[in-house]
Design brief:
With 660 residues, the chain is an alpha/beta fold. It is built from 23 helices and 20 strands. Helix 4 crosses helix 23 and helix 19 runs antiparallel to helix 20.
């Protein structure tokens, strides 16, 4: 770490004593050319990221860097929102603070000079004081056209300005012998560069200020969300980055026309609340944990026990309350920071997080006038638990039509099958007809809700502050849990009270994922929808597998004509997964018929189960990649594109065919 300079460095000319290690990297200049006039270096702002023992400095986008630079001259400590307004920078304090989640503040630096050692992979920025001293020496050297200047800093560092393109830094190693005079003999030199444009660093693109849609992402079991043991915050950052990249390739025209801004993804963390000091559950579990195989037992306590906690009324209430309150808190904070936002909101749940959201959405109330009547059961003129047709009609004030219905041998069960036209044919007027049909509808809705909630832990489910547009489940065990709870069939008419779209997305080798559609449509064996590759076609090994399957079928069906037919089948180009026509669907033509099959109303009559395409290496051993498959969604561009397509289809913006 470079120490902050308290005094100016000593500047002196350098004797021609360059060692081979430094002369080998000299970049020769045309010394006869006229030196360019001095120009002030253009600064760029960076922030520090510390992970374990590693420290890295990452650049802000050019837009954010300019905002920070413009705020530098303010007298008061200005707060600048950066990174899509997910962070605030206190400029004078030089600290970057997270807005939506708990995270230690990180150091921010206005960077102009950088260094890199022989073993370093990236350039690191000097402190601002050190950089200012270097810039002063560089200005003098350029102005006077005097090079080979040596700067000796009080902390022991020595920097030699050989020429405008070759500047080296030497660090002392302990106490030096008196006869060691050459700085190159003291230590391996560092390469020094001036300005961010002269180093190899990828400066991120700035994010659009226009947010089209907001998505909350709920994690599954354990504190880590992938094989690198990263937090939900880091994984959501990856998903957001993939989304921004895909918007630039698949919605480029929409961006140019101002129709497409961006989608904001925010993480929802519930694990800390469950395992924190408030519940004390970790201490209780630790007291009864055996001392053997401690690491494995610790992993089990941190992760797998979350499944058991969710089936406990005490801790299930804690989990559900935490998820709902955190989502509502984030939603309110986002609206406060983005008062112009008028878009819809969706939710994503991974693994156990998807089950939490499923149960939460199942128990939401719409707040509409109709649902309010369902809610106030004590004052309802006809409770939905009426046992007979006569009781029902009496409480509805329609007992005069009892004889009419009994003449047709109608009871409550058969009445539920009647259409309005049937009641009209019986001579029942419009008003009574509407009352009867409204009662039947409410009774059906309640029965379906009771069947879905069958087996759920008996707790009080909190209400969300908004009605989600779409619910996306990643690697979800919802189907398994519903079955274990005793639910064998989901009524095709069932929808979430406040959310009308639902996608069950999974990797084919994910050991935790289960399907939903067979629980709705049991009489038809439906294959899941294949999620298109984000580059617009099937993966090559899947195309080959399909071609070989067609060849095998051709050989079985027609031996004599198989060779020609098989060759045509093998050579046939696959149908583009992402069509060139903006108004067309992104699903291959051979799946169009399947897409039109009704699979209930859980996703508005559309397909629910969507499967990712495995990578070629994964197909060699599905068991080897099983765990990785359950954690792949955070970095899956195919998954991110499916979400974007669903979101922007509802906004009337078509997906574009990427250029091959």
């Amino acid at each position: 770490m470079i120490l902050t300079m308290l005094t100016l460095p000593q500047v002196s000319p350098v004797v021609d004593e360059a060692s081979p290690s430094s002369t080998s990297s000299f970049e020769m200049l045309d010394m006869d050319s006229v030196p360019p006039p001095y120009q002030v270096v253009k600064p760029h702002w960076f922030f520090c990221r510390r992970a374990d023992d590693n420290t890295s400095w990452l650049p802000f986008s050019r837009e954010d860097s300019e905002k920070l630079e413009n705020a530098l001259g303010e007298k008061e400590d200005v707060v600048v929102a950066v990174d899509g307004e997910r962070y605030d920078v206190r400029v004078k304090e030089r600290r970057r603070y997270a807005v939506y989640w708990d995270q230690a503040p990180s150091e921010v630096r206005r960077c102009t000079w950088f260094y890199k050692g022989d073993k370093d992979t990236k350039f690191m920025p000097y402190t601002e004081d050190f950089s200012n001293n270097l810039e002063d020496a560089y200005m003098i050297a350029v102005t006077l056209d005097e090079w080979k200047r040596k700067l000796e800093f009080p902390s022991g560092e020595t920097v030699i300005l050989h020429n405008p393109k070759l500047i080296m830094q030497y660090q002392p190693i302990g106490l030096q012998d008196e006869w060691v005079s050459s700085p190159s003999e003291q230590t391996r030199p560092r390469t020094v560069k001036r300005g961010v444009d002269n180093i190899s660093v990828e400066i991120p693109d700035g994010e659009s200020e226009k947010v089209d849609h907001l998505v909350f992402m709920v994690h599954g079991i354990g504190p880590a969300c992938d094989l690198r043991f990263r937090s939900i915050i880091q994984c959501v950052n990856d998903f957001r980055s993939a989304s921004l990249s895909l918007l630039g390739t698949h919605y480029k025209r929409g961006q140019e026309d101002g129709k497409v801004g961006r989608v904001e993804f925010l993480p929802v963390n519930w694990h800390n609340a469950l395992h924190g000091d408030a519940t004390g559950v970790d201490e209780d579990i630790q007291r009864i944990t055996l001392p053997s195989i401690s690491r494995l037992r610790q992993f089990t306590n941190d992760t797998l026990l979350d499944l058991f906690f969710y089936n406990s009324p005490t801790y299930c209430q804690t989990i559900v309350d935490t998820v709902a309150s955190e989502v509502n808190r984030l939603h309110a904070l986002f609206k406060q920071r983005h008062p112009e936002f008028t878009g819809a909101v969706s939710v994503v749940g991974h693994s156990l997080g998807s089950l939490i959201l499923f149960d939460l959405l199942t128990n939401q109330k719409t707040g509409s006038r109709e649902s309010n009547r369902e809610r106030v059961t004590c004052d309802d003129p006809c409770p939905l638990s009426c046992d007979s047709l006569e009781q029902t009609l009496i409480r509805l004030g329609l007992q005069e039509y009892l004889a009419t219905l009994q003449r047709e041998n109608l009871d409550l069960e058969s009445l539920a099958l009647c259409q309005e036209s049937d009641l009209k044919d019986l001579g029942i007027p419009l008003g009574p007809r509407k009352k009867i049909l409204d009662y039947v509808r409410r009774k059906q809705v309640q029965e379906v809700k009771h069947s879905i909630a069958k087996g759920q832990v008996s707790i009080n489910y909190p209400q969300l502050a908004f009605q989600p547009q779409t619910f996306f489940a990643f690697g979800s065990p919802i189907g398994m849990f519903l079955t274990v709870r005793g639910l064998k069939h989901i009524d095709p008419n069932y929808t979430f009270p406040t959310c009308k779209s639902f996608y069950n997305i999974y990797h084919p080798y994910d050991p935790v994922a289960y399907r939903i559609e067979p629980m709705i449509v049991s009489e038809v064996d439906l294959e899941p929808m294949l999620i298109p590759h984000h580059k617009g076609r099937k993966r090559m090994h899947l195309e080959l597998k399909d071609s070989l399957a067609r060849m095998s079928m051709d050989l079985k069906n027609n031996v004599l004509g198989s060779l020609r037919t098989a060759w045509q089948s093998f050579a046939r180009l696959p149908v583009a997964a992402l069509p060139p026509e903006p108004e067309s669907s992104s699903v291959p033509a051979e799946e169009t018929e399947e897409r039109e099959i009704k699979v209930g109303m859980l996703n508005g009559g559309r397909r629910i189960d969507y499967v990712l395409q495995e990578k070629p290496i994964e197909s060699f051993n599905e068991y080897l990649f099983a765990i990785q498959s359950h954690l792949c969604y955070w970095e899956s561009e195919d998954t991110a594109l499916l979400l974007l397509k669903e979101i922007y289809d509802k906004l009337g913006v078509a997906l574009e065919q990427p250029q091959q």
